[in-house]
Amino acid sequence: MQVRHLSIKNRLRFLTALALAPCLTGCFATPGGESSADGGASGSRLRVALAFPPAENFSPYGADATLLSRLGVTEGLTALDANGAATPALAESWRREDDRTWRFTLREATFQDGTDVTPSAVADALTHATKAKPVPAALAGVTLDAEADGSRGIRITTAAADPVLPMRLSSPSLAILSPKAYARQGAPTPVGTATGPFEITKVNSGGSATLDRFDDYWAGRAHASGIDARFVKDGTARANAVRTGDVDIAEAIPVAQAATLDKGTLKEAGTTRTTSLHLNTRTGPFKNQKLRAAARTAIDSSVIVKGVFEGYADPGAGIYGPAVTWAESKRVKPSGRADAARPDGTRITLATYDNRPELPEVAQVVQQQLEKAGFEVKLQVREYSRLESDALAGKFDAFIGARNSLLDTGDPVGILAGDYTCDGGYNLALLCDEKVDRAVKKADGTDGTGERQDAAMAAEAAVLGTDAVVPLAHQQIIVGVTTKVRGVVLDPYERTLVGAGTRR
């Protein structure tokens, strides 16, 4: 990591954080009043501070799916390796039988409720996912049927050829839960029904959760005996808790706090996460493409990267950033963009969330740039769990969010289908454009790694051509980890954080 000297601004931040220390001490004590700063022996519980509380009662079908995978609770049939290829998880192997049919062979594994992971249970879990409303982003535009095949096999048939099905099944939103999870109406519960190394045993009103080690985990017992997770939206508080030793791991350290952490406690890695400005194309002023063009031309992302992210990001180039190593050489210039209109005082509401501390600062810069261009901007900042439903319902004219472009499936087409098509389940811009849908459909039906990448970049150009989304910055992930902790799992897809090998 490059050493960054403390500026006057960062010295003030550091002193402010120290002033907060007394009120944070004890906030992360382990159950039973045990000391949280003794370092612990092998098998000690891990204290983890997460930025986002459950937004949907730990439903595996929405934003909470990643929270579950990051805590080592849930697993799918497959996982992704560092290069984005599918690797075994609950399925130990698979083969493609024809264009539309794949057969997966399950490993011997046990659900956290003590029942076996059987082909019928897996088929049932995948069938429930296909019926979820809204549909999980990993299944956007995909119709599949899953059925048991013998004592260890499961056969999955898709309505159309799906060359990336093994990658798709790695999505956290397609986690496999036991039949007990679906016993009640509504979203399934992962509490005590998943397969990962850690089992949720207690949830406290969304503010914290207690997880215990699942001793029958198929890959062997986890090193840590459990996890005490706290959901702390304040980024300064998360960073300070690492600094004082009140937590072992804290995700999403604000860039403003990164320079104040000791080098040994700061972990950073490239990520496929992009911060973007989404413009509501269905209702309000930005239904007019010329006003969307005016917003795009008003944005200078280099100011955001330098002033807000302090170098821990790259200027927005597209939906895919530098961590998607092949993207830049294949990028296609958008066409068909409208000429920018004069805003002439057009009033808009811009919203973002504060769980990622940089986003309100990004929003303030964007607000200033839009106002300089002639818009009148009202800014709203809330916690994500209180914002998501309104954003997806189109109650804002513009929305700034951070999204991992390969999170849902590992396939570059996944985010295009989920976020920018008429039927997309996470379509913040409410975009419904025939040209975009055709390009995404073409990309989704393309086989061959290179050919699929080319088609994805053509579809990206179609999306950018609508000016429904303005990429602002491609981020790095910054995690605070105390020096006594080993085995924290960082990956560019941000699906993992704590695994069976994580310990202190």
Feature tags:
single chain; alpha+beta; 4-stranded antiparallel sheet; 14 helices; 504 residues
Describe the protein's architecture and organization.
The structure is a single chain. This protein has 504 residues and is of the alpha+beta class. Helices cover 26% and strands 22% of the residues. It is built from 14 helices and 17 strands. It has helices spanning 8-24, 64-70, 119-130, 165-168, 235-244, 255-258, 289-298, 301-307, 327-330, 358-373, 388-392, 412-420, 434-444, 449-465; strands spanning 46-50, 78-80, 86-88, 91-98, 101-106, 144-149, 153-158, 198-204, 208-213, 226-231, 249-250, 266-279, 313-315, 347-353, 376-382, 398-404, 469-481. The strands form three sheets. Strands 1, 8, 9, 10, 11, 12, 13, 14, 15, 16 and 17 form an eleven-stranded mixed sheet that branches. A hairpin with a 3-residue loop joins strand 6 (144-149) and strand 7 (153-158). The protein is globular. The two termini are 23 Å apart. 54% of the residues are buried. The model is unreliable at 1-41 (pLDDT under 50).
Question: Concise description?
Answer:
The protein is built from 14 helices and 17 strands. By secondary structure, the chain is an alpha+beta fold.
